[in-house]
Design brief:
Elements (H helix, E strand, L loop, with lengths): L10 H5 L4 E3 L5 H13 L4 E4 L3 H13 L10 E4 L4 E4 L11 E6 L5 H13 L3 E5 L7 H5 L2 H4 L4 E6 L5 H6 L6 E5 L11 H8 L7 E2 L5 H19 L1
Parallel strand pairs: 1-2, 5-6, 5-7, 7-8, 8-9
Antiparallel strand pairs: 2-4, 3-4
Helix pairs in contact: 2-3, 4-9
């Protein structure tokens, strides 16, 4: 297998997060090689944006090599999150607190699930709360008590992307908005949601790039880690 990639094996020590593989534009061979190398160095091995066909191709490559075939039972595809992992995530860190990942609709699930998978891979407890968009505001209001226990909220929304703004006006926790490329016409592949979140009148709302569930999870991790460091 190819070893073209230069791995950042000190990222966990430096930043508190592990290196994740961007899988969408890599070949199955490249992904397989990086997963194996990460695990060999004792680092959690996670690839994002891997569809079922590419995951199957990675599995076939691992199975074909005598040195990697024993790893096959540890390879797992996460179809909702479009992720591929090898081995086990980091140990649970309940002291850091938990995150709730919300979505405006069920169409936002792939992005929300990516955020939750990335959190799980870093030992952060999380919960998915789907279909609480502002088109039926009572659905969100009915969940406010449930949100109080979370330290950070990640809100994924397409269309006009109003969910993070409404949420940030109702609760005191840090809210991270994730614009999602879902919506008709002028939604423009998530551009309307992105611009709406960036122009939000809710002070302190954090916004990541379109469909960037992984990035939102890492922003949440930074917040949680900083809070834990300040308390120690």
């Amino acid at each position: 297998m190819s070893e073209q990639a230069r791995l950042d094996l000190q990222r966990r020590q430096r930043l508190g997060m592990v290196e994740a593989i961007w899988g969408e534009h890599k070949t199955a061979a490249q992904i397989a090689a990086i997963l194996v190398r990460l695990q060999a160095h004792g680092e959690p091995a996670l690839a994002t944006r891997v569809d079922a066909a590419k995951a199957a191709a990675v599995s076939e490559l691992l199975a074909a090599e005598p040195t990697t075939a024993p790893l096959l039972p540890q390879l797992q595809h996460h179809p909702e999150a479009r992720g591929l992992s090898l081995g086990e995530p980091l140990a649970a860190r309940p002291a850091l607190g938990s995150v709730v990942v919300l979505s405006g609709g069920t169409s936002d699930l792939p992005v929300a699930a990516e955020a939750q998978l990335a959190l799980t891979w870093h030992g952060i407890a999380s919960e998915l709360l789907l279909d609480v968009g502002v088109a039926g505001l009572h659905r969100l209001l009915n969940q406010l008590e449930r949100l109080q226990a979370a330290r950070v909220l990640i809100a994924c929304a397409g269309m006009e992307g109003a969910l993070p703004t409404v949420l940030a006006g109702l609760v005191p926790q840090p809210v991270i908005g994730v614009p999602v490329s879902v919506g008709y016409g002028v939604s423009a592949g998530g551009q309307a949601a992105l611009h709406g979140m960036l122009a939000s009148c809710a002070p302190g709302l954090t916004v990541v790039n379109i469909d960037n569930g992984y990035g939102a999870a890492m922003a949440a991790l930074r917040i949680l880690s900083s809070g834990a460091a300040a308390a120690s």
